[in-house]
Design a protein that fits this description.
Layout lengths: L3 E6 L6 H13 L2 E7 L10 H11 L6 E6 L3 H8 L3 E6 L2 H17 L5 E6 L9 H9 L10 H13 L1
Parallel strand pairs: 1-2, 1-4, 2-3, 4-5
The protein binds coenzyme A (COA).
Length: about 160
């Protein structure tokens, strides 16, 4: 039986930390869907279409990964597509409390036996967040090595546009 997993986030932009989680989750499951979801509390630099394009480019080497977008309640997407696992990355204790609450809320809402599974972020990437990357880039700091190469150039051209 095919084991299907989901990894969701706003990915604005996707970082090397996210990519590391994607690669590890893809190795654990038969298929992995990376879902670019809307977090209503965030103002985004890249629109959904741009984030979809970037995510497809950076996951192109992973044959069992597909990318999708969704705006709505995550549990609706999970219930419709019947995933075995919902993957989250944990960078440290600061992520834990928020993740615990989301996992418990989702557990009430997931209809099938979808388990939330946490993968510990590689320590190399534990200090990275999408917001910090955008902030450093906005002030002209180096973001090389924090995000995939194509994201570096896209952020630079966005900053020039603005
Ligand atoms: N490497 C680098 N950064 C990481 C990371 C990793 N391994 N894991 C998490 N992060 C960072 C992200 O870059 C992000 O940084 P930012 O806040 O600066 O943008 C931060 O951690 C939070 O990421 P994440 O936990 O993936 O949150 P998100 O806002 O990107 O996505 C959703 C959260 C979209 C999945 C969630 O809000 C959701 O499910 N929304 C749909 C509505 C819904 O169902 N709500 C009820 C949920 S119970």
């Amino acid at each position: 039986m095919e084991r299907k997993a989901l990894y969701a986030g706003s990915f604005d932009p996707v970082t090397n930390g996210h990519l590391n989680i994607i690669e590890r989750a893809a190795a654990l499951f038969d298929s992995l869907t990376v879902l670019i979801a809307v977090n209503a509390n965030k103002n985004n630099l890249f629109d959904l279409g741009e984030r979809l394009e970037i995510m497809k480019e950076v996951t192109g080497h992973l044959s069992n990964v597909t990318v999708d977008t969704f705006s709505g309640l995550l549990a609706d997407y999970v219930n419709e597509n019947r995933f075995d696992a919902y993957i989250r990355g944990l960078r440290g204790t600061t992520d834990f409390e928020n993740e615990l609450h989301m996992a418990q809320m989702n557990a009430r809402l997931f209809r099938e036996d979808t388990e939330t599974i946490f993968l510990m972020t590689d320590p190399k990437y534990s200090f990275i967040s999408s917001s910090l990357v955008k902030e450093v880039a906005a002030f002209g700091g180096s973001i090389e090595g924090l995000v995939p190469e194509c994201v570096v150039s896209r952020i630079r051209s966005k900053s020039q546009e603005e």
